[in-house]
Amino acid sequence: xxxxxxxxxxxxxxxxxxxxxxxxxxxxxxxxxxxxxxxxxxxxxxxxxxxxxxxxxxxxxxxxxxxxxxxxxxxxxxxxxxxxxxxxxxxxxxxxxxxxxxxxxxxxxxxxxxxxxxxxxxxxxxxxxxxxxxxxxxxxxxxxxxxxxxxxxxxxxxxxxxxxxxxxxxxxxxxxxxxxxxxxxxxxxxxxxxxxxxxxxxxxxxxxxxxxxxxxxxxxxxxxxxxxxxxxxxxxxxxxxxxxxxxxxxxxxxxxxxxxxxxxxxxxxxxxxxxxxxxxxxxxxxxxxxxxxxxxxxxxxxxxxxxxxxxxxxxxxxxxxxxxxxxxxxxxxxxxxxxxxxxxxxxxxxxxxxxxxxxxxxxxxxxxxxxxxxxxxxxxxxxxxxxxxxxxxxxxxxxxxxxxxxxxxxxxxxxxxxxxxxxxxxxxxxxxxxxxxxxxxxxxxxxxxxxxxxxxxxxxxxxxxxxxxxxxxxxxxxxxxxxxxxxxxxxxxxxxxxxxxxxxxxxxxxxxxxxxxxxxxxxxxxxxxxxxxxxxxxxxxxxxxxxxxxxxxxxxxxxxxxxxxxxxxxxxxxxxxxxxxxxxxxxxxxxxxxxxxxxxxxxxxxxxxxxxxxxxxxxxxxxxxxxxxxxxxxxxxxxxxxxxxxxxxxxxxxxxxxxxxxxxxxxx
Length: 668
Hints:
Elements: H1 59-64, E1 89-91, E2 96-98, H2 103-108, E3 129-130, E4 136-137, H3 170-173, H4 188-191, E5 209-213, E6 217-219, E7 227-233, E8 239-244, E9 258-264, E10 270-272, E11 277-278, E12 287-290, E13 296-301, H5 304-307, E14 310-317, E15 320-328, E16 337-343, E17 349-354, H6 357-360, E18 363-371, E19 374-377, E20 382-383, E21 391-397, E22 405-410, E23 424-431, E24 436-439, E25 444-445, E26 453-459, E27 465-470, E28 480-486, E29 492-499, E30 507-512, E31 518-523, E32 529-537, E33 543-547, E34 552-553, E35 564-567, E36 573-578, E37 589-597, E38 606-608, E39 616-618, E40 625-628, H7 643-667
Parallel strand pairs: 6-38
Antiparallel strand pairs: 1-2, 3-4, 5-37, 6-37, 7-8, 8-9, 9-10, 9-11, 12-13, 13-14, 14-15, 16-17, 17-18, 18-19, 18-20, 21-22, 22-23, 23-24, 23-25, 26-27, 27-28, 28-29, 30-31, 31-32, 32-33, 32-34, 35-36, 36-37, 39-40
């Protein structure tokens, strides 16, 4: 039987952390044979000074957690005790989320029978508060509203609180740094449930949750090359692409641009994947986008052949980026094919914007891979609607939609502000039955003339949620980003949005996670800053965007931190570009962040990645220069040149490698 010393307990007692019975559910006892050590903030069970009943469903679990047992402890059946397990339930007509699994836990938080449902498993306070950091807490004034970046001392100022210090004295918050009042006295189920952050509901975290830099800062070797001008994470956040469109690293070329791909290792070190890809001619200013699989990329320039434009597609094969095709437009067409490019999850579809086509109305073209180096256009080109609208300025592809789906921005900010064109976003889906692109729902319009809505766009994996940045939205160009969800019926439903902090911020660069409920938004002017927001229920019951983690800011004037942002699929990894457009006397940079308790990662150094010049292969079509033929290891030094040059470069490479190893060793 399931009793102390019985077959369902190892070592014959309740102190064990595992059970000998492989099927604990077969044990008839109320604890199901599961004797576990729960990492709770301990309080003495039955202590009248605390005034709480036991949280555990039987004496075994009470003992196992290290609590004394007396007459007030839980020796009753589950219906009269507090279960140790936690299951969130929906109640209140489905528009609220209850953080309590039954009446017992609700009572622990101070709710009366009149405020809670009497049925076990459906207890729900009259009003649930979603804190700005993503945690769900109640309106219990003793607990207040606790969240990672902004603990508050009252419900009234919870959403707007900016104080980043704990509102409670150490004796009230238990000294655990969690900043939840009485967190050491209230069972964790009733005091801090981390809905978005994935923390165990049984623990109160000891540290503030912030965006921690999780890898060294990567900076360019030369000033003014816009390193960080276009960047992208793969789905996992473990691989990323960086562009430097003004780079003159390619031998003999000026502002040809370059593209690099890096892997982040578990110890935080960063390693280049494959060779560096360069533009082929002066002024190409190439940039790149990475497929979410991390195995393919597209490199593009809208300036080739008199603003005709060209796109190259590469695949990672045996550690090198190998060209698997290129797409171009007739010379001197002037349509700027490749002003922006999006690539599908596996890299088999690319969507290309040509913003100068048709009197700058713009257009979008879609291509799919046929094998070898062959690509074909999918359906007809999609035209813009307005002169100077520049349809195709920004594009994003839904990674997991049932049929190819993408969102396109038409910024319209070159037009007269009195023209009534605030900018727009449109979503298109491939119709397999007739091989045509079909617009999903209506056009999504900005709010005010001249907002430049659609200048930056992002879409969820399923294609049902989008976000669009409006660079000049609000009083004196604060900027903003706005979310929309498609529920059918031809209309996109507004989810509200977020606005820049101050006049002139131009907060609009946007990225979205897979689920579509988290966005990163950057203001890339001057110093620059980035904020991340989650979408969920608010105090009023309506949906709202609430900040998650702290605000990230640039470190030097003119670095334009936040000009480019990218989120991993789970939304836990963030890549931020600082191309330093406003300060040509400093190098561009990229920084990688992860959402984690403060102090999780060490302070990473600022690393300038040195790369020796290399012999580059000739492009047989235009006699320009091709991509570097170096392998991963070769990027640390020399290509195939003269023996004297090779010796000199090897010496320099040896010095750089030694310096890097020293830095890496210090981090391990």
